[in-house]
Amino acid sequence: MALYAELHRHLGGSVVPRVLWRYFQRRNEDLAAKFPVYPEFEEFYTRPRNTLDEYLELHTLVETVQTEQALPYFIYRLIRGAYIFENLAYLELRYTPYLRTPEHLSQGERIEQMAQIVEIVGKASQAEDYPIVTSQILCMHSRLPSEVNRAIVELAVSYPEYVCAIDVAGGDAHYRERLDEFVGLYDYARSHGLKTTGHLYETVDGCYPQLLPYLMRIGHGIQIPLKYPELLPQLAANQQCLEVCPTTYFKTGTLENLSQLKIVFDRCFEAGVDIAICTDNAGLHNVRLPFEYENLLTHDIIDFRQLQACQDAAFRHAFAWPHQQPPASLLTSILQKEPPEAQSIYP
């Protein structure tokens, strides 16, 4: 049995359309009235958008219903699907906790409530029926005030039992005027032992080399091999991994066809830069991680050897995977050792 690691999945975009629509029908009269028929909702929710900013607006639809009361409902179904349908052994969930707090509260009150959100997500992710190793990545946001982003990083530092890293999200085109702020926050995080990733070099408008030295992984990063391949040797030397999410780039209008990703993989493999294949927003895309693997294979973007290398890289770069080996190696060692009791049961 193959077991996989998912390093880049947003909590807001992880809810599959059917689960979200059913929640509207049962718990939210306004949204149920807006989307009375499921096929129409699925078409609206999963259709491609023209730009990354337009695509990210969909997150606000989910964020408004992912309240502290509703989060366990969504996370249980997320973990169940990841275990049963995707064979995940490891999952990192990323989100901005501030955006799950009540909007009517003051900024200070919402900052105080973020800790409760982290605890709810952490406890709900530990579903005994579906044993997956999980951890959280807390996202700073390009459109939130500096005080909130600072509080998010400090919260991540104070919850090592639930949080493994920080990220910056909100559309990489919007970082430009705040680079010094994000550099300072990443530097603070690294000085406190916190691991780091960041949405960077996803689009042609989001290429900021100033942030690269502070990132252990790069969220997307596809513009590096496409537009700035001269940076790849340094990424390899620093053992930085790209989190490549194939379906995303067509949902956001960033790429026109899948063949463009072949350049990304070929140049990274040639330079010795690791890639972890991820889903990003499995619900918005209505796809699961094994589909991303199969799609890359059937379109000859990668071969099986390269797929295995990417799967191994995902566990190697996982921020909170507790073992030195991926689960396939652990299972092999277990299966190759005949348990003592088996000798008496099977003469």
UniProtKB/TrEMBL annotation:
Domain called Adenosine deaminase: residue spans: 5-320
Its EC number(s): 3.5.4.4
Matching InterPro entries: A_deaminase_dom, Ado/ade_deaminase, Metal_Hydrolase
Domain of life: Bacteria
Gene3D superfamilies in UniProt: Metal-dependent hydrolases
Entry-linked CDD domains: ADA_AMPD (cd00443)
Cofactor: Zn(2+)
Hydrolase as UniProt keyword: yes
Keywords: Hydrolase, Metal-binding, Zinc
Family according to the record: Belongs to the metallo-dependent hydrolases superfamily. Adenosine and AMP deaminases family.
PANTHER family: ADENOSINE DEAMINASE
Protein name, entry field: adenosine deaminase
Organism: Spirulina subsalsa FACHB-351
